[in-house]
Amino acid sequence: MYQIVLLDDEVNILEGLENHFPWSEFGFEIAKTFNYASAALEFLAQNPIELVITDIKMPNMDGIEFVKELRRRKIPTLVILLSGYADFSYAKKAISYGVKEYLLKPLDREALSLTLTKIKEELDRINYPERESEKYNGYYKQITETIKTYVSREYAHATLDEAALLVALSPNYVSKLFKSETDQKFSDYLLEVKMKKAVSLLQDVNLRIYEISFAVGYDNPKNFTRAFKQYFGKTPWEYREAGI
């Protein structure tokens, strides 16, 4: 069984979650419940817990701050955030810190069930990589190809966070997976795609350098020129004049 910590300042919600959901059916059990984020942090620092389910609105330290502190302390626990507000800005911020899911209150039983199923599958892959390795290698390859396709299409505005949203995984997990599959950081791959596209655009002598800069995602042409020279050893003008 994977271990869960529940965190909510409302005791009735905690009791309802703990006692009225069939956690074991999804491969989980409740290790501990907390009303205060600080106490939960101390427990998590000392105990290996796979998943935390926490409310986003709490006194002293809200759910986003709690997750930030988890990451600062390098505690690798997965997190589900609960909120009474359907605010995408909250969700996007939560995902940027590696939160696995953002669920709305009152909590929908089916939504929680689906989320736990997905998280258990991920935990199984992490903890038992030797099992069905061929199947999972195909899964990893598919994710990597999806990200590469996204970058090739959206290179001007592509980000790791958006790539992670696309494949429904955390940015941190996607970063590690992409590096493992390609032997290249996501940021390096994105830069490579941008620079290759810039070289292609330089062949059109009617395009000005600042137009190429904007086309590949640089708002400031000076930053584009600097990045291009670092990558190729020549400025865009020198590259064009050399006819490479």
Notable traits:
244 residues; 12 helices
Which bin fits the share of residues in helices?
A: 55-70%
Tally of contiguous helical segments? 12
Question: How would you sum up the major sheet?
Answer: 5 strands, parallel
Q: What does the average pLDDT come to? A: 88
Strand order of the largest sheet: 2-1-3-4-5
Q: Report, as a whole number of angstroms, the end-to-end distance.
A: 59 Å
Q: Which stretches are poorly predicted, pLDDT < 50 over at least 5 residues?
A: none
Order of helices and strands: EHEHEHEHEHHHHHHHH
Which structural class do the helices and strands define?
Answer: alpha/beta
User: How much β-strand is present in the residues?
Assistant: 5-15%
Taken from the alpha-carbon principal axes, the silhouette is elongated
In total, the number of strands is 5
Instruction: Give the oligomeric state of the chains in this entry, treating copies of one chain as homo and distinct chains as hetero.
Output: single chain
Q: Give Rg in angstroms.
A: 22 Å
